[in-house]
Amino acid sequence: MKPFAYLRPDSLTHASQLTEEPSAIPIAGGTNLLDLMKLQVETPESLIDVNKLSLSEIGDEGEGLRIGALATNTATAAHPRVRSDYPVLARAILAGATQQLRNKATTAGNLCQRTRCYYFTNIDQPCNKREPGSGCGALDGIARLHAILGASSQCIATYPGDMAVAMAALGAEVEIMNAGGETTRVPLEDFHRLPGDTPEKDNILESGDIITGVILPAPVKGVQLYRKVRERSSYAFALCSVAAIVNMEEGRIGDIALAFGGLAHKPWRDKRVEEALKGTEPSLKGFDEAAEILLEDAQGYGENDFKIPLTRRTLKAVLCEATGMDT
Amino acid sequence: MTLTINGESRSLPEDPRISLLDYLRQGAGLTGTKKGCDHGQCGACTVLVNGVRINSCLTLAVMHDGDDITTIEGMGTPDDLSPMQAAFVKHDGYQCGYCTPGQICSAVAMLDEVAAGWPSDVTDDLNGKVELTGDEIRERMSGNLCRCGAYSNIVEAIQEAALETKTAGADA
User: How far apart are CA B165 and CA B109, in angstroms?
Assistant: First the structure.
């Protein structure tokens, strides 16, 4: 590990000032960051330990729920209101990592975790995300985990998390304090970005920005499901995952929200798919048509071609379960 | 800046790069905690921090000012094994033994998590009581790998220790 300065601010303002330095990185749980520092993928000159800030609370926010930036994944998944009102979020968190990791991982850290692309984590390989302009090794290489939606010729990495996929389906907002001390809220589905020509930027955070929490809106009616397809049944990243919130009204699909993990550089939400399903009677034909809309621009890169039919089948299975249809 | 390891107070290292794992083994001389992958994938380095299990390889020692650490050395001694250690011996829950300290620390904390009602990925009812089935144990212990493949005996050992803990709790 390269040497770094270790700093422990005790106020948000001070933390924000310290992270304005270009080579400073905030550390919370550290489960992803320290891993990347050992590999010299991340080489900060200073590490800003934000754990002294009081940001771990989970509590009511109107009819919704506010989850502090430093709340652990464990605390969030075990919170009574998350379990009863936002089960898709509890399920998504529990489907990820291991208990040891979830005990350290935090809300903000989880949102900011980096891709698990093999070329990103190996400093001997080209990677435009790690070293802009060096090329993308995955384009003609090992691409099993990689994107089928929203990728660019510069980067086909995926956002690896589960928690954010459920939060995207729930319509959550990320609360961010900027260097000027102003607090803004950004819809979670706009927090992560597509790679385009600047894959080094995973999300919209600017220098000096500190995530202070995630706000879930008031709970909605309906069935909430999180289905994750992976290489083994525990402790593996998603090849494809679906977060679904579906409310049936007199035999027809009412309000519906769908978000997908493992497919893109961000949790993927396509409102056209939801619109196509809303108001319809559940049918395999209708689910097929919805999957067709979702995947019309999907592109495989050889090794991950299988993700296109896998996503179609996973979406159909989730919709069957959520609408109570026999298969 | 101090932390407590198995009840003994120690000062934190000056170099912030030192992981908690390296500090335990080299700074404190407690080599029971093992370094397997050093990347949070194998669980051999699992210890308890304030009663909660974590991978000690993925945290810096300097981040633990004031924390209370329990390692395998704090669980029991060869002459006075803890119930989980005794169950691992009885059920032959290891072959080479390298992953065992991490397995035992992990399993002890896991029983507390179940007692607290935390659900897992395989828990049917998120709001119901957790039954410690084989599937629950396997899922909850998925962060601890055993390259010898002693898994079936590890599950049996944990089931027995869980039963003893329950009985001891009922007696109290």
Answer: 12
